[in-house]
Amino acid sequence: MPRLHLGDWVDSGVNWLVAHMSWLFDAVRAVVEGMYDGIDAVLTAPAPLLLAGILAVLAWWLRGLAAGVLAFAGFALIDSLALWDQAMSTLALVLVATVVALAISIPLGILAARSKAVSSAVRPALDLLQTMPSMVLLIPAILFFGLGTAAGVVATLVFALAPGVRMTELGIRQVDAELVEAAEAFGTRPRDTLLRVQLPLALPTIMAGVNQVIMLGLSMVVIAGMVGTGGLGGAVNEAIGQLDIGYGFEAGVGIVVLAIYLDRVTSALGTQLSPLGRRAAARAPRTTLTYRPRPVVAAVGAIVLALVAGGLGIFGSSTGTAAAAKDDVGKGKEIKIGYIPWDEGIASTYLWKEILEERGYKVTTTQYAAGPLYTGVATGQLDFQTDAWLPTTHAEYWKKYGKQLDDLGSWYQRTSLELTVPSYVKDVDSLADLKAHASEFGGKIVGIEPSAGMMGLLKDKVLKEYGLDGSYQVVDGSTPAMLAELKRDYARKQPVVVTLWSPHWAYSDYKLKKLKDPKGAWGKGDGVHTVARKGFAQDDPQVASWLKHFSMTEKQLTGLEAQIQKAGKGQEQQAVKTWLGQHPGLVDTWAPVERGSKDQAAG
Amino acid sequence: MSASLEADHLFKVFGRRPEAAVDRLRQGADRKELRAEGTTAAVIDASFTVEAGRIFVVMGLSGSGKSTLLRMLNGLLEPTAGQVRFDGRDLTALDERELREVRSRKISMVFQHFALFPHRSVRDNAAYGLEVQGVPRAERERRADEALALCGLAGWEDSWPDELSGGMQQRVGLARALATDADLLLMDESFSALDPLIRRDMQDQLLELQRTLKKTIVFITHDLNEAMRLGDRIAVMRDGRIVQNGTAEDILLRPADDYVASFTQDVDRSRVLTAGAVMDPEVRGDEADCGCETAAPDTPVAELCAISARTGHPVAVLDGDGTLVGVVPRGRLVAFLGDEPDRPAACDGARRVPDARRSPDRGPAADAKEVTARA
Predict the structure, then answer these.
(1) Would the CB atoms of B117 and A184 count as touching at under 8 Å?
(2) Nearest to B115 among A179, A187, A275 (CB)
(3) Where are the alpha helices (DSSP H) in A242-294?
(4) Tens-digit pLDDT profile for residues A472-497
(5) Which CATH number fits domain A416-514: 3.50.50.60, 3.40.190.100, 3.10.320.10, 3.40.50.2000?
């Protein structure tokens, strides 16, 4: 068979689109982000419990008293888990994605229902969108729309579009042909047949489709979190990256609450919108649990709450931003930092956020998966990131994006790649010892993402060097899966060998043994580099020079990481402040400012 | 006010190159030949005229093309060839917009499965056609209520279709068709989905309404009894062609072919045939002189049998002016009911014919002898 270079064609197609259609993507991006910002602003304006009240009144009106009470409890739970802002940002994201998805899918579904040709053309396209792994679509989405909301919405949209189209088509096709004929026999215009007969009767099915669109959209927020949309998806990704079961569960519960609320409210909305559903609902027996206020009452309730909310918003929002910085070098200039939720990444990113804010910059930090992070910096949407493991671990990314990036040098040298076993595994201290114990480990080395540089190194060099390629197999997977496997085997005191690197929190959580590498097969360890977008050094020479000269010792880094770990989620910057307070003078070392003689020393 | 409907050499062919198929059909090609090529000739060369204010029934089994024929009359299907003229207008020449206008004002339709809109109340269903016409709400509701009352549904206006029985639902369907005041009513197996007693009721009601409304009605059915009850004229369709077009009596007494004849076997002749059809027009002139009960030419045979049972001799048939137009001997009645055109065979048995008066069950035999003797 000749090799079909489909991948190359797609590659060049995407490149062409990026080069020539950027005006279109920019327009889409502007619209989507405008919608998102608008909705998010509305959702985050009132105090959490007030908005919970408004949402509860909505559920009460549409479904009944029990639904209202449960909705309030659910949103109060989100608030008490300190996930309110994330939840609202996710809600806004899903709403925007849903609105856009419906704006596309319902007309498309109507067209497909009316024309066989459209239907058979649309169907394979929908199959493609729905089954193509979403991660595959994510990278082009970033290239087209940039990191953040727009790419997240588009990724969600693409996935959620299909049920909207399918259910609309199905709903309309399901309408009894005799009814459509009856409408035509009385001289109804095609448009009126659609509006007066087909759509009202298809409404329950269409609303089921809307419901599916929302549910699929919610299931996509985790994926969307990888491209920096933040919200609950970002929280879940962060928890996965750190194997933080508790935090992951909390964020997951937040998503579930949103899902159940949106599901119940949209299905009730479907009932209320359809004349048949309204009638069926009116005939159902009434109990206290299903008591529903009249629309007027509900509207008044919601408006009162909204007014209260608005009032509080006006008086409550003037808490003021940070006090004026001492050494205002940045003068409010914006700097965008991206990071991977790895310990040293979080620590160094928040460290720089704090330092730069003290120097008068306005800093935003966003969390990404490694791939999107490199894409983001390379396309100039982010200014820099501090967690590039070069030359080995991130070799693939560097190969692809290196030309569009500026390496500002490494700030931490003492990294190493290694194979690691728990310390209870006896007689295995070096890579050379592995061969004899292959059966003990089941001939398995638990690896991480196959794209990671260290995996290539392991398979191509390390195994050969120690003659392990016959007796061991490297299991591809992911970092969280590797860590979970380690945790599981560690708890049961099973022998296991994993790929790991230093620094890593696993070394402080578990008693582990790095296997010695007498032949030096792993090579010299990576440095942790700071990587900036091309041109950042010209735009901001001061910050670039600070970053170039930045370096941390192992003691400083582990100390800071421990401080952050202690402070808990959401308190990273506070932890950095505390740590800097304990280590006075570091800010001036890392970000020196020319001062006049009358300035007193920092203290 | 009603207008006449005329169908002129209508063809409907589904599939590829329908016009070519019509040409071949005109040259005598068979429906089966076309089917082998993947084209379906649903209606082949159908022509008929429906007089204003009459009920025209199209009778045929499923697949005979009767529903297709009906849908060409209001343009839901466009004929492949031929014309439909209604009220002097050629409907096949109208564009979509004009056709919709005609459908909304001049032609109504009643469906087999009622086709009521489940998301509209009974009143809103009945008012649907008027709503399409753009009649203001107050007026269309008044007229819908009138139509509903006409169909015996006063008081049900605010109900919903799924709260009504099948018969009542079809009354709503009928009211919806009548509310627009259309001149032409197309009824597609409208009573087929109802159980027999309700169906009878509905037939009676339709005939009752028709007496005052005088619509032009095309009624589709697969039930010859229904066709004979309702139809002023009946067209029998088979394999897309109209094989016979005539009155109920024509169909029953002079079936065009064996196919039509096979249908008539199940028909209750005594309700369809009348004295005019069974009487012997050769009269001596004194048969009505005795003062016994007489019949009129349109007296159904069922009633005639009763009269015959009450009179000892052949029943005299008098027309509207009291002129004697024929006699019905009992033997003739029996022969018609039994669909036996031949005379009784001669019997050489020694059995004596008993007195008719004492044993009425043997009576017709005696009459039969008399008929034979006279003939």
Answers:
(1) no
(2) A179
(3) 245-273, 275-283
(4) 888 888 887 888 888 888 888 889 99
(5) 3.40.190.100
